[in-house]
Amino acid sequence: MKNKVLLSILLFTFISCSESFDIDVSFGESQSINPGIDDAFASTYKPMNSEPILFKSANIYDGLGGELKDYDLLLSDGKIIEIGKSLTAAEALIIDATNKWLTPGIIDIHSHMGVYSAPGVSTSSDGNEATSPVTAEVWAEHSLWTQDPQFALALKGGVTAFHVLPGSANLFGGRGATFKNISQNTIQAMKFPGAPHSLKMACGENPKRVYGSRGQSPATRMGNMAGYRSTWIDAVEYTDGMNAENSDSRPTRDLAMDTLMGVLNGEILIQNHCYRAEEMALMIEMSREFNYKITAFHHAVEAYKIADLLADEGICAALWADWWGFKHEAYDMVQANVAIIDQARNGTGCAIVHSDDEVGIQHLNQEAAKAMAAGNRAGYEISKAHAMRWITSNPAKAAGILDQTGSIEIGKDADVVLWSGDPFSVYSRAEKVLIDGAVAFDIDNPKIQPITDFDLGIIQPQTNRVK
What we know:
By secondary structure, the protein is of the alpha/beta class.
């Protein structure tokens, strides 16, 4: 059994967050001794109806560092079909994109939409199961409110996919899941097909504050570490037991241990809330102890201090452009944090600009622009085409969906945004947002501007609320 786990880990070490990163691992395709967990709550997402669309004379950032001027883009059957000049398509809707920009859809790797839905009231505060330091058994998607009006607001900012995580009260907060940004009546109908689950872990102040204030463990950072390690010891024993040849000797199925076993088997990705550099290094050391892979550190205000280590380990850092100082562990920040991560080890680092905020998710393009400007002020030469990766292909890597979306490449999902101008300008707006080739938002067509039942019951959504 241990050899089987080691093989999974060795396969996973080939996945990195460098320029040459390409996902070639199909999550969940290996035979499972618990097939029910692979099938439970599976995606039922179906793309909206679409017609062939040909964008003419667009400027394109492809999300991989490429910039194409005055190019055409053909979409059909939900996929990107052709990129070139002077393209023709007899049946396609022609959209003149002269002097406008096309980008991949924006992806937010750290969202709480749906689990901390609007309005922010206690009855909809469903992101933290803060009842035990270890709640690996809970799944964020089981709290998701499909009518959250925040989905539509994010869509207007060009967000086509997002990863929803539990909060950070616990050492092990539970599973996260990735969604297409099309509000549906059921949660499964929004889930991104084929996207792996994640496990949310949290370092530092949050767990020790929540549980230390109750007079229980963990109350210190060393208590945090002891709690992680004890739980992983149990998870290794559970995994060994579940893979025993004799089915009669297998332990009783346990939801929390199922999740941790999924991590050990390389099927579930670790998304780790962690601010301080030395704590991130400790988490890396612990991952070596128990042979699992950390996919990304989130918030990571001090990531710049260990940028080379993160690049060497193939770990992404999901960061704010300039949030800092709101608590002790967030004090030691530099505005070039994103750029330093990106440029580590000759530019092989994996930097992501994330939101963790219901307003920030609406203008992640501007957040990326701020991070790019800070990096260039610090002496790095970062182009707009390169910085586009921070909100498109890099979060797609960290979510395990780069094989399907995150860049403008032939054969990928037609998740694209048409901007009125330079997408890094505060004056540009998303004019059209397409998901699987279907127009999900059109700034010029009120009939293609999502309105939730909640909106209809509270306000007049067609009136201008910006006075």
